[in-house]
Amino acid sequence: MKRPVRRRGVTLEQWKALPREKKALGFVYTFLRYSVILIMIAQAFNKDFESVFLCALTLVLFLIPNFVEKRLRIDVPDTLEVIILLFIYAAEILGEIRAYYITFPYWDTMLHTLNGFLCAAIGFSLVDILNQHTKVSTFSLSPAYMALVAFCFSMTVGVVWEFFECAMDKFFLLDMQKDTILHTISSVTLDPAGANTPVVVRDIADVAVIHSDGTLTALGVGGYLDIGLRDTMKDLFVNFIGAVVFSVIGYFYVKERGKGRFARRFIPRVIDSSGQARPEPGPEDGP
Questions:
Q1: What is the CA radius of gyration of the chain?
Q2: Considering the entire predicted model, what is its pTM?
């Protein structure tokens, strides 16, 4: 069934006539937007201008789905849009300003897993839209190839983000790649013979730092302080999991086009000249 393009700002009568999904989307969007505005005002009174900037950035990011729909004429499913809005809020407001990354150890892991899933959905939709376009439809791509492209797109976004985190840590010392406490390490650098033989150091209880003036400071972290490697690999691994999950879903979405409703909640579609989301081809139409 074709569905109309979503519009912001509706009358009370129009609101009552909206389906439950669109009411939920409108409620989430309004609640999150005013929540960010209130937090921004509070941070401005506290003179925390970095948090004010993050709030302003969050409000701009909230506009992306609507921009995509109106300017690029791509219909973003309501479920996908709600998840995107919640993802932005969880990452910027709860994660950074409310320090959920520190308070809840698995907060970052959850977001990276969700990021892998969402990026795979976006990557899949890009290929799916091209696959249905009249100018390139002669290249009808197989479901397996489209799933592979979605997976690669998601992993590429994850890698680029880790590059960004590493650059912020290197040049601005932000510690976006969070530290990990280890009690066992192995390193060829510690080999007294200078060979390529790893030396294993076990039962590490603490790390001491010698400053340039010769003073010694024990960090009291309870082990060896790994500055980002384990965090990066963990982020990429959970991104991998999210990407694989949606790639499998996308594979069956194309292979059995028209069956099931789960995948279509996450895959944007082109809006035609009449303002409607272009209907999906049935199984008999091929991929």
A1: 24
A2: 0.85
